[in-house]
Every structure is written in C-alpha cells, then in structure tokens.
Amino acid sequence: MKITNIKTYNVRPRWCFLKIETDEGITGWGEPIIEGKADTIRAAVHEMSDYLIGRDPRQIEDIWTTLYRAAFYRGGPILMSAISGIDQALWDIKGKFYNAPIYDLLGGKCRDTVKTYCWIGGDRPTDVAAAALDKKKQGYQAVKMNATEELQYLDSYEKIDAVLKRVASIREAVGKGFGIAIDFHGRVHRPMAKVLAKKLEEFDPLFLEEPVLSDHMEAFPEIAAACNIPIATGERLYSRWDFKRLLQTGGVDIIQPDLSHAGGITEVRKIAAMAECYDIALAPHCPLGPIALSACLAVDFTTYNAVIQEQSAGIHYNVGRGLMDYVVNKDDFAITQGKICPPVRSGLGVVLNEEIILEEAVHNHNWKNPIWRHEDGSIAEW
Ligand SMILES: [Mg+2]
C-alpha cells in the first residue's frame, strides 16, 4: 500500500481536517491544528507531504521519525501539530487495513469506559452553578471552568474573591464528590497563582490546570507545595522532550498532552508511559473536533494512567459547528453517565460526512482568539 494524496480542509469552528489517500482505496483522517494558525499548519502538512507520497502508510514509527528527526529542525506547536494530524491519519489507515480499532493494534483495551468532563461558564465565567448542576443532571461527574478573566501580576483581592464565590456556588449546587476542575488558562502569574491556589483548597477541586504557563514550569513545585490540590498542565508542551523537563521539574500530578499538538497517538503513548513511571496521571487535552477526540480515546483505552478525557460538546469555542456535526456514527460517541465507550469501528472509529466537510472548507474559517488587555492598556494573557 502506498500514500497517493494528502488533502486538508479548514472547517468551523476552528479546526483543520486532513485526509490521506492510498492506492488501495483506504483513506485515513487526522486533525492537525493549532487553534488560530490553521493555514500555517496546512502549509506545514503539505510541505511534509514530500516525505509521505509513495510511502507505505503502515510504517508509522519510521514515518514519524522521518518527519521529526530527518528534517533537522524539530519540535514546537506548528511542526508537532502537523505531525500529530498525519500520525492520526496513518493509524486510521492501519486500523482500517487490519479491520481493527486502533486500541486493538496497541495491545487491547485496559478499561471498559473512560470518564469525561464538560466545559461550563465560557471565557468570562458566569452562571456556573446552574450550568454545573445541569451537567450533573445529564449524568456528568465532572466539569471544568476558567477560574478568572484577566489577572495582573499583582491584582485586586476582589477578583480573587469573585473566583472563590463562583467556585463556592458550584460546590453548593452540586454537592460533595462532583468534580470541579479549574483552569487558570495561563492567565494567572506566579505571584497571584499561589494565593489563588491556596484559597481554592477548601472547595476540593478535581485539579488546577495551568496555574502558571508551562514556560514557568520551575514554579510548579512551589505552587504544589502551597496547596493540597492536584496540579495539571501540558496542553502547550509538544513532545517527549518537553514533557521530560516537566517530569524532572516536578510539582505536577496530571499531564494533559493534546493529541493534535504533541505528536499524535504515537508520541502521546510514549509521553504517557514516561508519566506513569512518575505516578502521574494522563488527561488528554481536547477542546477540538471528533478526529482528535477519537485519537485521544485510542490512547485512553490503552493507557493505564489515563484518568479523564476532555471533549468539546457544548464548549464556548464551538460556534457555527459542534463536535458531532461532521460525524455520521454519532451513537458510537454517546456520553452516558459522563462516560464514553471505546469506538467499535476499525481505525479511529469515526465515520465523517465528507459532503459537509467540503461545504465548510469553501468558507475557510479564519478563527482567532480574542486579544485581551488589562485596565492599564497592556496585553493580558487570554
Ligand atoms: Mg487549559
């Protein structure tokens, strides 16, 4: 079998889908994307196609290594997201060739279901208690929310109090035992991060995400020591070598590599195994589309330390199109009691509606995240 063609499609809300075609008629899908840089990723994918056309798509390890090592320059969000989508599509093809779900090619399932959580509250969190209660009624056992809006290096305690009030309102609405994950989103700087983390302890959050940016990973041990809350991070790390530094630095309890940013299924399996050696859990980051989610599930079902899966149903970013809009076999991804079952079909297990993808691609979305500024006019982290 040989790769004959590679196509990419920018589709709403902010995604890029990739299709790899072969001379045997088997096709594979991937989702190579860095949100806000869709056209850059497409260019990277098409540049990499020189190394792909004519290759046997089943030689995934060698193709991955060629794309990563043989091109001299490596790593970072653009190159690794391009490799991620290609890797997902190669696994999809391989699964379809052997008529097996990817998790069967990776040693078989090690769990029957995987827990998932929903986003609530949007970019500027409001009405979170009602939203959390609604998710609980739908059967979810956990939600995630942004902690705060813009926060300066040193900021007012009124903003801290507003965060505490919001989280308190959720805890009161959903009761004990329901998971409340709190994403600092890299919006919080080190001086306020430890203050906020310490004060959130009383609400027993499921975890704190990106309490500071991974750029400041040396601060994680200090933040971890300041509070009794599991610390999560990793959506802005892109390879084993990035995660090596994090694991060696410590202070982190849950890693969140993104299957569309951190080298795909091949790489995230290795990252997860490294984390397991440190007794660290895996919770793949996935505010993206159905192909990325399927790739996450292939890892979750074959990775002992996988604990919970993010997915984008109802997320505030999904404007115009949603998680299941491109999927034909929606029932295979049903979320029951907050859990997802392993996809049953071969490959990634997702059947896509190509007609809608082609319609969408014509419009070529140009999604960008908002630019935020502090009161003094300086740029704020979004
Ligand atoms: Mg996050």
What does this structure look like?
This protein has 382 residues and is of the alpha/beta class. Helices cover 36% and strands 15% of the residues. Helix 7 links the parallel strand 6 and strand 7. The mean pLDDT is 97. Strands 4, 5, 6, 7, 8, 9, 10, 11, 12 and 13 form a ten-stranded mixed beta sheet that branches. The chain has a three-stranded antiparallel beta sheet with strand order 1-2-3. A two-stranded antiparallel ribbon has the order 14-15. The chain binds magnesium ion. Magnesium ion binds next to loops.
Question: Brief overview, please?
Answer:
The protein has 382 residues and is of the alpha/beta class. The chain is 36% helix and 15% strand.
Task: Determine the N-to-C terminus distance.
Answer: 45 Å
Q: Mind describing the biggest β-sheet?
A: 10 strands, mixed
Counted beta strands: 15
Please work out how many helical segments DSSP would assign. Answer: 12
Query: What is the residue-mean pLDDT, rounded to a whole number?
Result: 97
Low-confidence stretches: none
Helix content: 25-40%
Give me some keywords for this one.
globular, alpha/beta, 36% helix, binds magnesium ion, three-stranded antiparallel sheet, ten-stranded mixed sheet, 15% strand, 382 residues
How is the secondary structure organized here?
Blueprint: E1 3-11, E2 15-22, E3 27-30, H1 38-48, H2 60-70, H3 76-97, H4 102-105, E4 114-119, H5 128-137, E5 142-146, H6 157-174, E6 179-183, H7 190-200, E7 207-209, H8 220-226, E8 231-233, H9 240-249, E9 254-255, H10 264-276, E10 281-282, H11 290-300, E11 309-310, E12 335-336, E13 339-340, H12 354-363, E14 372-373, E15 379-380
Parallel strand pairs: 4-5, 4-11, 5-6, 6-7, 7-8, 8-9, 9-10
Antiparallel strand pairs: 1-2, 2-3, 4-13, 12-13, 14-15
The protein binds magnesium ion.
